[in-house]
Specification:
Elements lengths: L2 H9 L9 H7 L8 H5 L2 H8 L9 E2 L10 H23 L1 H17 L6 E4 L2 H11 L7 E5 L4 H14 L2 E5 L8 H11 L4 E7 L11 H10 L3 E5 L11 H4 L3 E5 L11 E5 L31 H5 L1 H11 L1 H19 L5 E3 L12 E5 L4 H12 L1 E2 L1 E5 L2 E6 L7 H15 L1
The structure holds pyridoxal-5'-phosphate.
C-alpha cells in the first residue's frame, strides 16, 4: 500500500481511528537482511512472529485453512474500531462510513492489483461467487463447467441455476498430480462446446492445496468466447500474484483466510465490461452505478471492513515474499519426511508452483475421519478430514506461527499411524 493512501485512510472523514501505523511497525520484529528463502528457515525470526499470537496450548493447530486467527495487534485495533464506531453511532453511519468504506475499497484494489471501480468488499467468497452464478444472464441450454474438487457452496448454486434457468453443468475431475499445465488446460478446453458460457476454477483447490494455472486457463477460454470465474478463497495473501495479470473475468476471495481479517470479509472483482449484465442478489437501487449496484446489502458491520488497513499492514510488514516462502518451506518440511513412507499417500503436487502451505495426506486403509480423530485424541493435532472427489486424507495447513518442532510431532504421529 502506498504511504499516502494509508495515511489518508486513517484520517479520512474525521473518525478518530487509532493511529497505529507506527506502533504496528515497531511490534513486528525487523527482518534479518536475507533472502526470503533463507529467512524461511530462520526459526528464531518466526518464533518472534509466533509470539504475536495468542495460541491455544491444548493442541497443535494444523487447520489454518478454515480461517486465519488474528495476531493480537490486529485484534486490538479491530476492537478499538468497534468501540469508535459504537461511540459515533448513527452519525457515523449516515456520514463518514461511505468515504471510509470507499477508502478500504481502494486499499484492497491496490493490494490485489486492480482498479477500485472493479472490486467491492463482500462478506466472503460464497457471497462473491454465488452472486455471479445466480446473477449471470443465463438462457435455457447454456452450459457451465467446473470441477468436482471445487467448493460445495458454489457447486450448490450452479445446481440451483440449472433447475431455475435450464442450464447444464459439466463437471470434470482434476488429477491430484498433474503432469503439466497443459494437462489441466486441456481438461477444461475439451469440456467447452458452443453453448459454454462460464468456467469456474479454483486458484488453489481447498481440499488438496493444488494451485491451478489460472492465466493459461483464462487465455484458452477467451479464445472460445468463454468467461472464467476464479475462486481465490485461499490464494489472496498466501501466494503472490497480480489479479489483472491473471486475465480472469470474475474473482472472489475470503479475506478472513490468509489476510487474517476479522471473520466475515471477502472481495469480489468483476471486469468492467461484465458488470452491467450481472443481476444483483438483492433489490437494485437505480441510482447506484457500476460494481457498487451489486453490493447493496443493508446495514453492515463497517468496523470489520475498517480493519483492512491493519491486516494489510501486518501482512506487508512480514513481507509477501517472506510469508509465501515460509509457508511453502513448512509444507515441504513435513512432506519431504513422509513422501516415501509405505502406506502414506500424498494428495498434493510436489512442484513449488503447484502448492504452498496446504497439503493433503492419507493413510492406506484408514478412513480420513478416523485419521483426524486419532490425530486429535492421541497426538493433540487438529486437522480436517477430506473424503471425496478423489481425495482421501487430512488437509494439513500450517500458518506463519507454526514451528518445525510442531511439524516434527505431526510427522512422528503419521509414521506411527502408518506402520
Ligand atoms: C476454495 C474455497 N472456496 C470458497 C470457500 C468459502 O469461503 P467462505 O466460507 O469464506 O465463503 C472456501 C472455504 O473454505 C474454500 O476453501
Amino acid at each position: 500500500m502506498q504511504k499516502r493512501a494509508f495515511l489518508k485512510a486513517i484520517t479520512l472523514g474525521g473518525l478518530v481511528l487509532p493511529q497505529i501505523g507506527k506502533s504496528m511497525t515497531k511490534i513486528i520484529p525487523s527482518q534479518p537482511k536475507v533472502s526470503p528463502t533463507l529467512l524461511a528457515a530462520d526459526e528464531s525470526y518466526w518464533e518472534k512472529i509466533r509470539a504475536m499470537y495468542r495460541l491455544k496450548p491444548d493442541y497443535i493447530n494444523l487447520e489454518n485453512g478454515y480461517y486465519n486467527i488474528l495476531p493480537e495487534a490486529t485484534l486490538n485495533h479491530y476492537l478499538n474500531l468497534i468501540k469508535e464506531v459504537n461511540y459515533h453511532g448513527a452519525f457515523y453511519m449516515r456520514t463518514r462510513q461511505f468515504n471510509e468504506r470507499a477508502e478500504q475499497n481502494n486499499l484492497i484494489a491496490n493490494f490485489v492489483g486492480c482498479d477500485p471501480t472493479e472490486i467491492v468488499l463482500t462478506r466472503n467468497t460464497t457471497e462473491s461467487l454465488d452472486l455471479i452464478i445466480s446473477g449471470y444472464p443465463w438462457a435455457v441450454g447454456d452450459e457451465a463447467i467446473f470441477a468436482e474438487q471445487d467448493y460445495g457452496a458454489m457447486i450448490d448454486m450452479f445446481k440451483q441455476v440449472a433447475k431455475r434457468h435450464g442450464i447444464s453443468n459439466k463437471i470434470l475431475s482434476l488429477p491430484n498430480h498433474p503432469k503439466s499445465d497443459d494437462e489441466i488446460v486441456a481438461l477444461y478446453q475439451n469440456a467447452i462446446t458452443p453453448k459454454t458460457k462460464l468456467i469456474m476454477i479454483c486458484h488453489m483447490v481447498n481440499i488438496t492445496g493444488q494451485i491451478l494455472p489460472v492465466k493459461k486457463i483464462c487465455d484458452m477460454a477467451h479464445q472460445y468466447g468463454v468467461e472464467v470465474m476464479v475462486d481465490g478463497a485461499h490464494a489472496i495473501a498466501h501466494i503472490q500474484f497480480n489479479l489483472k495479470e491473471l486475465n480472469c473475468d470474475y474473482y472472489g476471495a475470503s479475506l478472513h483466510k490468509w489476510l487474517a481479517m476479522p471473520l466475515g470479509v471477502g472481495m469480489l472483482y468483476i471486469k468492467k465490461e461484465h458488470q452491467s449484465k450481472i443481476w444483483p442478489l438483492l433489490g437494485e437501487n437505480d441510482t447506484v452505478k457500476g460494481i457498487a449496484r451489486l453490493n447493496h446489502f443493508g446495514t453492515n458491520p463497517v468496523h470489520t471492513y475498517l480493519a483492512l488497513q491493519y491486516a494489510i499492514q501486518f501482512h506487508q510488514n512480514i513481507g509477501a515474499a517472506n510469508k509465501e516462502e515460509r509457508l511453502r518451506y513448512l509444507q515441504n518440511y513435513w512432506t519431504n519426511k513422509i513422501v516415501d513412507i509405505p502406506n502414506i499417500i500424498l494428495n498434493t503436487p510436489r512442484e513449488a508452483n503447484r502448492s504452498c502451505a496446504i497439503a493433503n495426506v492419507g493413510i492406506k486403509g484408514l478412513k480420513p475421519s478416523e485419521m483426524a480423530s486419532t490425530l486429535l485424541k492421541t497426538y493433540q493435532i487438529y486437522t480436517v478430514a477430506i473424503d471425496g472427489a478423489g481425495v482421501h486424507g487430512c488437509r494439513i495447513t500450517p500458518n506463519v506461527f507454526t514451528t518445525t518442532k510442531e511439524l516434527d510431532q505431526f510427522v512422528k504421529a503419521l509414521k506411527e499411524m502408518a506402520s
